[in-house]
Amino acid sequence: MTGEGDCCEPAWLDDLEIDAWRRLAAVLTVLPSELDAQMQKRADLNQFEYHVLSYLSEAPDRTLRISDLATLVRGSLSRMSHLIKRLERRGWLRREPAPEDGRYTNAILTDAGYEKVVSVAPVQLDVVRQLVLGQLTRVQLKQLREIGNRLLANVDSFKCVE
């Protein structure tokens, strides 16, 4: 049953959709591991760890609820819990109950963690520019931002439906 109007026939991708999807899938496969490899080699951190430290460095009093931090870096609470313990062992942050509501736990960037993120920031900027941003024009960067916003909003709305 492949006739028109068949409810069970998939809506196949056209040539442009196939090409766009395959290129995006390739980027999603290759880029994260390359970013992590470069950061690990040059700064002894992966991208996710850097983003956590970076968000904390920009937060008031270098403090965020762990649940809010997980939302910001788009990580699960389970992944965040493991990462927080690892970063705590390295002396880069500490955990404390949230004073305004003890049901929550805050992650607090230590002075050593702040020094780490400040020292690593130039490396991270170089890696990101070298692998991604430096390859695009200003117009393409604006398009990439808009595409990213649209895709993330769709993924977020899809999560809400589940």
TrEMBL record:
SUPFAM superfamilies named in the record: Winged helix' DNA-binding domain
GO molecular function, one term: DNA-binding transcription factor activity
InterPro entries: HTH_MarR-typ, MarR/SlyA-like, WH-like_DNA-bd_sf, WH_DNA-bd_sf
TM annotation in the entry: none
The organism's place on the tree of life at top rank: Bacteria
Domain HTH marR-type: 17-153
Name of the featured protein: MarR family transcriptional regulator
Species assigned in the record: Virgisporangium aurantiacum
